[in-house]
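Re: beginner question about structure tokens

> Can someone show what the tokenized structure looks like for a real chain? I only ever see the sequence side.

Sure, here's an example I had lying around. Input first:
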Amino acid sequence: MVKEWKVKKVEELSKLIESYPVIGIINMQKMPAPQLQAIRKELKGKAKILMSKKSLMKRALEKAKKEGIKGLEEYLKGQPAFIFTEMNPFELFKYIKENKTPAPAKAGDIAPKDIVVNKGNTGLPAGPAIGQLSEVGIISKVQDGKIHVVKDVTVVKEGEEISANVAAVLNMLGIHPMEIGLDLLAAYENGVIFDKKILDIDEEEYRRRLNECIVSAINLSLNSSYLTKLTAPMAIQKAYLEARALALEAGVYTKEVMDELLAKAYREAMSLKKMITEV
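And the corresponding structure tokens:
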């Protein structure tokens, strides 16, 4: 017989799934309780986080009537939790990504990006620390009684495991390369599931590509004489400038170019007069 609290939990989760337009799956693994409380407080009024057993979360997804919602089951990994919100998935991912805090590295952690120790004064006094730095490939020297790193060194590359020695050195130098925050694995909206790889947009790159597309579309419209509401004024201006240039080149007398034709004729006459005078 299924325990009553499990039935109630599934019912609660399924109702929330039906109530909110956007449902996300987040991984809470290695999330310290104090940071989680701070995040909950920060998200108050924007999103609701609810943790439960994977089996109960799966049942809630199966019970929900939303089309395609069951596809979230494959993202129930690590220590999953639901996040319910009215923010669109991209807005939600951006908000979560921007609200992560630095944390010290521990042995066994996976580097989220290249970890670089920059050259310069470490602030550490001369002593055993020099040997610790050397063990992880950091060349240093003593200057004015303090240890200085001679050149920038990448001690761990993105995706590599952080060793105990490297973690100790990073902590000694006050470098906190890890990030504590929610890890949004996927989000559902209107029958579509957005994976984190889709949600993680480089906004600057997106704007650059969008601008390139706009310029290419305008050029295609103008060069093919396929006019639109946007390009019609540009095409008229282009045609006017080309017609004007042709009139000047061919000496066609119109009121638009008459002044310039007269000025051109005057310059040519003055040039000719000078040549005759010199002869």
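Each token stands for a local structural state, so reading them left to right follows the chain. The chain has ten helices and twelve strands.
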